[in-house]
Amino acid sequence: MVDKNMSGTVLNIQRFTIHDGPGIRTEVFLKGCPLQCRWCSNPESMKVQPEVGVNKEACLGIDHCGWCVDKCPNVALILEEKKIVAIDREKCSNCLSCATSCPNDTLKIFGNSMTVEEIMKIVRSDRNYYEQSGGGLTLSGGDPLVQWKFSLEILKACKLTNIHTCVETELFCKKEIIDHILPYTDLIITDIKHMDTQKHKLFTNVGNEVILDNIKYIVKNNADVVIRIPIVPGHNNDDENIRITAEFISKELNNRIHQLQLLPYRPLGVDKYASLGLSYSMNGQEKINRDEYKKEIENIAMKFQSYGIPAVTGANKLL
User: Fold this and answer.
1) Is 224 exposed, middle or buried (0-12, 13-18, 19+ CB in 10 A)?
2) CATH value of 51-110 in 3.40.190.10, 3.30.70.20, 3.40.50.700, 3.40.50.300
3) Residue 266 has what pLDDT?
4) CA dist., res. 228 & res. 72, Å (int)
5) pLDDT (0 to 100) of residue 315
6) pTM for the full model?
């Protein structure tokens, strides 16, 4: 049985995507992530609850509007020259009243509550595209296993109607959660950020022991797995880390993965950090020569291939 009325916090739903799983897909992004990667381009996905971002350039000014100020119960809005420029997050109770009263998206709510059935109506409407292309549903985030009970009901609903399912997850979770999810998941996409647990913790705020152990666990349980590595200059692109990663995949996993995808780092989402009052820790990153960077990733792919690992550059080459 599927609990169609169970609700969760959804960040976004993208239709007709082609990068996160085979074929044409409907991708549901859920809020909540156990990691805080320095290079994350979606900081609005980290917390489970809805939150308000500020686009200060769009503010009309309180002398023309001012509804948000009237609605805020905690005087948490910060003004400069009669315009909203930020939110005092310590005062803010996250009641969302300011954003719901804003007429022009100066104050934007990231995340909203949806039921399983509301999501499935959208998913089912794209069924013809799945059947023609071999596509289906992808649950992403954030990390959908943060809201794993909600994710489970969506996956179960898909399997009842023979829709292909993919879960994109960090696998920083208990094995019991994986045991619930695996029977309803056709493909798992996960990451290896770094093989050194101390550096992993420095870059993501958590160690890698649970993640690596869970990757071994799902491979042992015959899951179809795609591993991704975001190649971030100065963080995880050194020869030693590449070698240890390749040995882990070839020896610990016996190369039993569908594909290894090497992804380029791009400084995206910087404006969203500012809108949430967060600092972007990659600001000191040197300018990357795109041609040299592309060549470096291609060379790293060849190193993995020398171990018999099915490595490719990019996320749109899933076979």
Assistant:
1) middle
2) 3.30.70.20
3) 84
4) 42
5) 85
6) 0.94
Query: Where does CATH 3.20.20.70 sit in the chain?
Result: 8-47+112-313
**CATH number corresponding to 8-47+112-313:** 3.20.20.70
d(CA 112, CA 110): 7
- 97: enclosing H helix or E strand: helix 97-101
DSSP letter, residue 47: S
Q: Which of 134, 177, 133 is nearest to 155 (CA)?
A: 177
Residue in the structure block whose two tokens are 């001012």: 66
300's tokens: 């790293």
Q: Which residues of the chain have pLDDT under 50?
A: none
The count of other CB atoms within 10 Å of the CB of residue 292 is 9
Provide the pLDDT for residue 287.
Answer: 64
Q: Could you identify the residue written with the tokens 């290896």? A: 192
The pLDDT of residue 319:
60
Contact 172, 143 (CB under 8 A): yes
The whole-number pLDDT of residue 104 equals: 87
Distance CA 155, CA 186 (A): 10
Q: For 248-278, write each residue's pLDDT tens digit.
A: 999 999 999 999 999 998 888 899 999 999 9
Which residues of the chain form CATH 3.30.70.20?
Answer: 51-110
Q: How far apart are CA 41 and CA 34, in angstroms?
A: 15
